[in-house]
């Protein structure tokens, strides 16, 4: 069922969560308005995403703040992985986030499905590239062919690439950057 949350703060006070493959919210449906999610970090376990969308839902996050969140091991703050999903994030702030100290898919990652980011701010987000096999990318927004970005700002964010040693010598991982693999980017700084 669709639900609506409005105007609350979730402060984890730096508590660890170690669900596998857990998240604060899995497949939310409906509206999440004027909410703050902050001070949370995951243990170093397999793919703990903070907001995980793996079903055909299209939640709307509006005026929300995601702050001081740290994930580990091939994780993102928001992860979309369903062909029928289309979340919308409008006027949201992603601030002081570290995705993942080990591997990352990006602060915001659309693997399958689509997503719209409108009037969002990404401030001081850090992403670390896969240092093991060189096949993953490090980006603030790691989208796909149906990820739409409008009037957003990406400020003081970092994305680290690294080399790894193979039988053929030193190999660099794939391209990294603030935004990769998206359908359109409009009026974005």
Strands, total number: 24
Outline the biggest β-sheet.
Answer: 9 strands, parallel
How large is the count of helical segments? Answer: 0
Note the run of SSEs as H and E.
EEEEEEEEEEEEEEEEEEEEEEEE
SS-derived structural category? mainly beta
Question: Which regions contain 5 or more consecutive residues with pLDDT less than 50?
Answer: none
Question: Average pLDDT across residues?
Answer: 80
Overall morphology: globular
| Radius of gyration of CA atoms, rounded to a whole number | 16 Å
How much helical structure, as a percent, in the residues? under 10%
Task: State the end-to-end CA separation.
Answer: 37 Å
Strand content range: over 45%
Structure description:
The structure is a single chain. The protein has 189 residues and is an all-beta fold. The protein has no helices and 24 strands. It has strands at residues 3-6, 9-17, 25-26, 30-33, 36-42, 51-53, 60-62, 65-71, 78-81, 88-90, 93-95, 98-99, 108-112, 115-118, 121-123, 126-128, 139-142, 147-150, 153-155, 158-160, 163-166, 169-172, 177-180, 184-186. Strands 2, 5, 8, 11, 12, 15, 16, 19 and 20 form a 9-stranded parallel sheet that branches. A hairpin with a 2-residue loop joins strand 21 and strand 22 (169-172). The protein is globular, with a radius of gyration of 16 Å. The mean pLDDT is 80.
Brief overview:
This protein is mostly beta strands and 189 residues long. Helix content is 0%, strand content 50%.
């Amino acid at each position: 069922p669709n639900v609506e949350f409005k105007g609350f703060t979730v402060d984890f006070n730096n508590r660890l969560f170690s669900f596998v493959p857990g998240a604060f919210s899995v497949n939310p449906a409906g509206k999440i308005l004027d909410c703050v999610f902050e001070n949370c970090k995951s243990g170093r376990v397999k793919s703990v995403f903070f907001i995980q969308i793996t079903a055909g839902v299209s939640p709307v996050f509006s005026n929300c703040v995601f702050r001081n969140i740290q994930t580990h091991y091939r994780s993102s703050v928001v992860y979309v992985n369903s062909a029928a999903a289309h979340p919308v994030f409008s006027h949201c702030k992603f601030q002081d986030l570290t995705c993942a100290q080990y591997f990352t898919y990006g602060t915001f990652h659309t693997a399958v499905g689509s997503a719209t980011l409108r009037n969002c701010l990404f401030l001081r987000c850090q992403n670390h590239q896969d240092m093991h096999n060189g096949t993953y990318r490090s980006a603030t927004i790691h989208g796909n062919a149906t990820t739409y970005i409008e009037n957003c700002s990406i400020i003081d964010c970092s994305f680290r690439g690294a080399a790894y040693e193979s039988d053929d010598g030193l190999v660099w991982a794939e391209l990294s950057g603030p935004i990769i693999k998206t359908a359109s980017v409009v009026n974005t700084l």
